[in-house]
Amino acid sequence: MRKPTKLMSDQLQLFEPETAEGEGFDPLAYDRYVVAMSGGKDSMGSLLQLLDLGVERDKIELWHHLVDGREDRLMDWPVTPDYCWTIAEALDVEIFFSWKVGGFRGEMLRDEEKTAAVRFETPSGEVKEVGGNNGAKNTRRMFPQVSGNLQVRWCSSYLKIDVASIAIRNQKRFERGKTLFVTGERAEESARREKQSVLEPHDADLRNGSRKTRYVDHWRPMHSWGEEEVWELLRRWQINPHPAYRLGWGRCSCMWCIFGSNDQFASAAEIDPEMARRIADYEEEFGTTIKRDRSVPEMVEEGEAYDMKEEDIDAALSETFDEPAIVEDWSLPKGAFGDTAGPS
Ligand code: SF4
């Protein structure tokens, strides 16, 4: 089902005050658009903004980084990859998956080892592998720690940001034409995000390279948006939100996000007690908890699980998303405007 695209004057206003550093920025002047799609409402909003602006669908590709890789699940919602795939199919845009081999668990369990290779899908259908023998040997053997510093809270950098940069740097196609890399961070989510630029050259940009060039801008179109505007955008497009929102999560990131609140940990433990035990066992084994001042079992104890419906639990814990991506009878999910604990 295709939605008509139209230029929204209220969205055009966004480009003015926020893009002083990108004067003359024309979001339609790129050859390809890569949207970092987590499955949450803000990445969805980024995609919908492109469509509202009239960007041609065959220039858009969604990139979903599999936090747990293609191996053993630990942190993420089981349904997220298929949810993203279903959205891509319904909106008629391409989707590519990418991941660090071994995922979150593999990186966390590094013991005098180099970081694992990155794999990413490509338009030819080939899965390319890069790295695996780079950098110094290192030991982690602890969860990423809650911090604004991406070295300490390594999951965001090693499992998402670096994966995207590696995938861009290692595909020749990005050396031709201009690419706009689009992410959904909003200023009101954290002090760190507030300081992020709306428009800047991407980490993988090489526009002034001497031997080869790669033109990649990084745009954060949701930066000035409030939560209400984002939900209104999803409502207008009748996008079925990720099931985590129906359970009560106000933000959809990893199911066991290290930034989670007590109530989120209590809710996650209620619907997946086995995984709660495995995570608590890792904390014991490492002698270091996810949060500096309390363990996962303590958070579960202190928190209050949301009142969750069986059908929504099943939907979130399923590896397939068995619902339509676009729904006629759209309604605001319970988690909207609720508990917004999540990545900073
Ligand atoms: S959602 Fe949370 S746990 Fe997952 S990668 Fe981001 S910061 Fe880490």
UniProtKB/TrEMBL annotation:
All copies of domain Phosphoadenosine phosphosulphate reductase, residue ranges: 143-257
One family name in Pfam for this protein: PAPS_reduct
GO molecular function: catalytic activity
Residue ranges that the Swiss-Prot or TrEMBL entry lists as coiled coil: none
Gene3D superfamilies assigned: HUPs
InterPro entries attached to this UniProt entry: PAPS_reduct_dom, Rossmann-like_a/b/a_fold, Sulfate_adenylyltrnsfr_sub2
SUPFAM superfamilies from the UniProt entry: Adenine nucleotide alpha hydrolases-like
Source organism superkingdom: Bacteria
Protein name: 3'-phosphoadenosine 5'-phosphosulfate sulfotransferase (PAPS reductase)/FAD synthetase
